[in-house]
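#struct-pred
JK: can someone run the complex with pyridoxal-5'-phosphate? inputs below
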Amino acid sequence: MMRAVYLDHAATTPLDPRVRRAMEPYLKAEYGNPSSLHRWGRRARMALDAARETVAAALNADPAEILFVSSGTESCNLAVIGCALKAPPHRRHILVSAIEHHCVLHAAEWLISLGYTVDYIPVDRYGQVDPDAVRARIRDETWLASIMHANNEMGTLQPVEAIARICRERGVWFHVDAVQTFGLLPVDVATIGCDLLSVSAHKLYGPKGVGALYVRALTPLQPLMVGGGQERDRRAGTEHVAGIVGFAEAVRLAQATIPAEAERQTALRDQFIHAVLETIPDAALTGHPTERLPGNAHFRFAGAPADSLLIALDRAGIAASSGAACSAGSLEPSHVLLALGWDETAAQEGVRFTLGRDTTWDDLAYTVEVLRQEVARIRATRSPVRPRAGGRAASQKTPLR
Ligand code: PLP
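RT: done, structure tokens with the ligand placed:
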């Protein structure tokens, strides 16, 4: 039987069986609408309230500050667009980093179409935002800044606490996309000091299609969904009770494993990075060597385009990714890698491996061996055989790029 090695946990994680069991009653007998006054409704409401308390406690927030939404994408859209729509006409300036997820970048573009101005904060070669670069771009008109906690492609962690302090000093609302960190690392809204923060259930072994937005009390927010009073009038629509119950159970389970699981994944990741760099010629680690998500290892294999390599890995039973899952399948170079200053060719040669709770060293050792063979094979098929001085062919190990 072919081996199955799933190393794409940043794209999504499997549903934990304990989470599925917690959800089951709400997919069966407990089908009440939490807005209904009868007992079916009241039981659903109690489940929703308990879930809100769990998520709020994990984030060190008040339950009234947590809105349940349909995804991390909706959470980021609501934070960025919803907060920006409350800006007075003379404050329509927004800051985002160049490496945000598209759910923030496209929200910012949409605001541009409404007449807002957006500045993109650059990152250094490790993919980090310099807090002083944020400070330098804040103007009197700046209303909102949105900087992610960890980048989903190369895993770099951002100095969000320092950025939050600057935003607070300058009276700028601050949103943090914590979709990649929640459940893996501590995410404490009081320690970070942000006004808005986004999380998603399916990155922490919960169900897909459920997310939450933390909104600090008094933060301005224009609802994007209208037509019902749910979520304290901030997000209309009947809540996905089973999904939200599953989200809370996933959060509860994840909180119990921080920091032990983060330490385990960090050690495995470092061993994997070391083995890849030792074994594969011209392999380079992308992102920060230490300030990165515990389970993230991202490499550039020069001369081996990511799409060819991902197909080869998939044939060997290994799931990896070339970056954001939503841009997989298209040949667009990654905007994150371009922001590192890479050229278009290089930006198509980035491959991401993200470890999970079940990943073992055995899985990673197998991956290193497959990578060794496949990177060499792809480079050999692609590098033109050029006659060198003396008539010998150029080494096929050295790609001509
Ligand atoms: N933000 C980041 C950093 C992500 O990695 C993702 C998902 O890949 C999202 C937002 C969107 O979350 P969801 O898939 O729940 O819409």
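RT: quick notes.
The domain at 17-255 is CATH 3.40.640.10 (Aspartate Aminotransferase; domain 2).
The chain is about 40% helix and 15% strand.
JK: thanks, will look after standup
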